[in-house]
Amino acid sequence: MTDFRPLTAGYSVSPQISLEDVAAAKAAGYALVINNRPDGEDPAAPQGADIAHACAAEGLAYAAIPVGHAGFSHAQLDALDTLLGDATGPVLAYCRSGTRSTHLWALARARAGDDLDAICNAAAARGYDLSALRPMMDALAGTR
């Protein structure tokens, strides 16, 4: 069952996807799937290699930027920026609930200088509360 939640016209998030969801992502027009879940976090869930194989079979690009308990790093923000810059179409990012994928996007957009209230509103419209992340977003926005 797909639960793709668009934050922008070109970036959506989702809770853990199934192998069947990859075909639905292709049918919905996504060009790239980004996995923000570390392998082994839930052994019962499809692992990165499984999703990568399903993406390849559907002609979708696949990338992994695992976000674990250590939180977010500038390297992860850089990786997302690069992937989004190189994407040939809409992007679907997923993790366990979609929260880490939303947070990574929000931090990257804050660092890029996007309007912070607009970022928070886009996330809230899809069920993600960024209020606890706002101080970090403010700090990143101030480092531009």
What order do the helices and strands come in, and which of them pair?
Elements: E1 5-6, E2 11-14, H1 19-27, E3 32-35, H2 48-58, E4 61-64, H3 74-86, E5 91-94, H4 99-112, H5 116-125, H6 134-142
Parallel strand pairs: 2-5, 3-4, 3-5
Antiparallel strand pairs: 1-2
Helix pairs in contact: 1-2, 3-4, 4-5, 4-6
Structural overview:
This protein has helices at residues 19-27, 48-58, 74-86, 99-112, 116-125, 134-142, and strands spanning 5-6, 11-14, 32-35, 61-64, 91-94. It has 144 residues and is of the alpha/beta class. The chain has one domain (5-142): Protein tyrosine phosphatase superfamily (Protein-Tyrosine Phosphatase, Chain A, Alpha-Beta Complex), CATH 3.90.190.10. Strands 1-2-5-3-4 form a five-stranded mixed β-sheet, with helices on both faces. It is globular. The N and C termini lie far apart (40 Å). InterPro entries: BLH_phosphatase-like, Prot-tyrosine_phosphatase-like. Residues 3-111 form the Beta-lactamase hydrolase-like protein phosphatase-like domain. This is TIGR01244 family protein. It holds the Pfam family BLH_phosphatase.
